[in-house]
Design goal:
alpha+beta, 13 strands, about 25% strand, globular, Cathepsin D, subunit A, domain 1, 3-stranded antiparallel β-sheet, 2 domains, 7-stranded mixed β-sheet, 7 helices, about 25% helix, about 300 residues
Length: about 300
Amino acid sequence: MVPILFEYRAMIKSEPKGLDWEVIQRLHELKQLKANLSEEDKDKNLPNVEAIIKAYQTKQISNKGDLVTFWCDGKLVAGPKKFDPKELYALSSKQGPAGLWVEGINGSKPQRLNIFFSLNPPIPGYAQHKIFISLRNPNTQATNTDMQTLTVQCLEDTGATLMKLHDQDVVELERLSGTNLPIVGSSIMTTATALVTARRMVVQANIWHNGQYIIPRWVDIEACVSPSPPGQSHMSLSRLSGVWIHHMLTVLSLPDNTFRKHIGTNIYEILNTLVIPDPTLAQPPPIMTGNNPAPQGP
């Protein structure tokens, strides 16, 4: 029998009967978070995790649909209901940000927009792209200006569920805005080398390209923040843009040997703007091996 099935059976037996498999999986993750937060709980969320585990086990809440619940200091304060970022910001200003948790939020998808631009690879011949993202604190959105804006360079990574920021980015953004970012909880995140516990926050984001903001409005997105591994500076690790750009816009490349990435409102507008190449002339990217890793670029 496949070993993973034994693990699944053990997970099911460890919980009360009658729980959905999705709930059991979420409980498994929450128990991992509980163990990690027992060692370090910067955002004071251990009471929330313990209360949410009990709420799932007693069927007080479920993770079906797109409803969320708001928790503060181990108590349910709102929900289940549709996620409203304004309610999060109000609770964060009143109760938090420490000790506040939003259960059930899974990266709300922003509305699509009408824009178009292209990204050139920083290293010719490699389909790796960097993008500049401008960030603001949603808790101060009424008074935010360019003076409260932090612009960072990110790896445009389609495999990242959430935007990834450094600890120092959070410190700088909170310094510029004069207040804390709204926290929605923590998650176990899968990286290329290990599972890590990452704090989750909400930021307002925009794309910075050719000296201007591309998106006509600031977009509320989730970002994860994890500490740098021992011995590594946060500057040696790449920020990741996350998947929110792909929810809002169409992102594609063409077999034209330029390795450019094109971002726009929809595929038809992009293809009408570009010269369609002959795919038979496309050159494959270089083969990467452990002895010949792709360069990191500027």
